[in-house]
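Sample entry (88 residues):
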Amino acid sequence: MSNEKSVKIFRISGYFKQRRETTPFSKEYLALTQRNATDKLFSQFGSKNRLKRNQIKIQSIVEITKDEIKDPLIEKIVNSDFTIPVEE
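Predicted structure, serialized as tokens:
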């Protein structure tokens, strides 16, 4: 049985309500699971925009391929040869 886990790329789309405005968003995250990706989204929006989880509405979570990446930082990370050594 292998302990190796592969990192996936998720695109999360939705909107958030702040004051009287509704603002759409689409974010891409590297994560092991959809749950990890949504937790990163809530954490990021909470710290940067001071939003609570109930102010953020997720409409879709899609696993995407390397070819579908729009975020330049995610694209740079995915296309690099950088690896993290793991001790056993």
